[in-house]
């Protein structure tokens, strides 16, 4: 209740805050793809979600940073896969269900939109910085998951090096797939199958060094 005796607005739950962040991220992606990063404003992003620009800036320090929740989803999905990887089993086996299901490594409202966003990271410095930062943040999470799997300390050199290999391979695979797709009208089912195959191929290569 406020000082004047009126009931105040109840505070947002962490779950609702996460939902708002994701809604903002999706709106930003759509605008970046359709009109470019430079032409997109915080006000436009907010209007697309039904919030003010002030709310957008409360959640993100810049318009480019609005895409962070989409990239962060991939970190979570891959970390879960690494924890599920059982000793003696092929590495790609831990991801054979995650990747085709929704491919959260490059999660978005739809694959074509996210593919276009990753293509933008090639020429848009702000988005490129966010893309690379997401992988910087992923590496320690991957290292912890690999350390847990091996029963090693979290700061052990071996899982740290393995995580770096794994991280670089996934980024290279995502970029290889997206940047070589010239026509955005590619059949979605075909594009999904190609993305999954590329990711699994990258995991196979990494597994050779993680055996």
Automatic annotation (TrEMBL):
Pfam families tied to this protein: TetR_C_14, TetR_N
Record's keyword terms, sorted: DNA-binding, Transcription, Transcription regulation
Gene3D superfamilies named among the record's database cross-references: Tetracycline Repressor, domain 2
Feature: DNA-binding region: 41-60
Domain annotation HTH tetR-type: ranges: 18-78
SUPFAM superfamilies named among the record's database cross-references: Homeodomain-like
Residue spans crossing the bilayer: none
InterPro entries assigned to the protein according to its UniProt record, in alphabetical order: Homeodomain-like_sf (IPR009057), HTH-type_TetR-like_transc_reg (IPR050109), HTH_TetR (IPR001647), MftR_C (IPR041347)
Gene Ontology molecular function: DNA-binding transcription factor activity; transcription cis-regulatory region binding
Claim: Transcription is one of the keywords in the record: yes
PANTHER family, per database record: HTH-TYPE TRANSCRIPTIONAL REGULATOR BETI (PTHR30055:SF234), HTH-TYPE TRANSCRIPTIONAL REGULATOR RUTR (PTHR30055)
Protein name per its UniProtKB record: TetR family transcriptional regulator
């Amino acid at each position: 209740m406020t000082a004047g005796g009126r009931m105040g607005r109840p505070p947002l739950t962490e779950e609702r805050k996460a939902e708002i962040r994701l809604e903002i991220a999706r709106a930003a992606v759509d605008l970046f793809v359709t009109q470019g990063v430079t032409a997109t404003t915080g006000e436009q992003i907010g209007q697309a979600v039904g919030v003010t620009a002030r709310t957008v800036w409360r959640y993100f320090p810049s318009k480019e940073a609005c895409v962070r929740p989409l990239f962060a989803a991939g970190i979570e999905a891959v970390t879960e896969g690494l924890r599920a990887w059982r000793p003696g089993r092929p590495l790609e086996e831990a991801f054979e269900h995650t990747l085709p299901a929704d491919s959260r490594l490059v999660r978005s409202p739809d694959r074509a939109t996210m593919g276009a966003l990753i293509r933008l990271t090639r020429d848009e410095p702000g988005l490129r910085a966010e893309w690379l930062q997401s992988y910087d943040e992923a590496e320690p999470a991957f290292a912890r998951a690999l350390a847990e799997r091996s029963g090693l300390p979290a700061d052990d050199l071996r899982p740290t090096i393995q995580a770096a290999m794994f991280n670089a391979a996934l980024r290279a695979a995502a970029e290889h797939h997206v940047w070589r797709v010239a026509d955005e009208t590619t059949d979605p089912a075909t594009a999904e199958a190609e993305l999954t195959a590329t990711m699994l191929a990258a995991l196979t290569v990494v597994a050779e060094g993680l055996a």
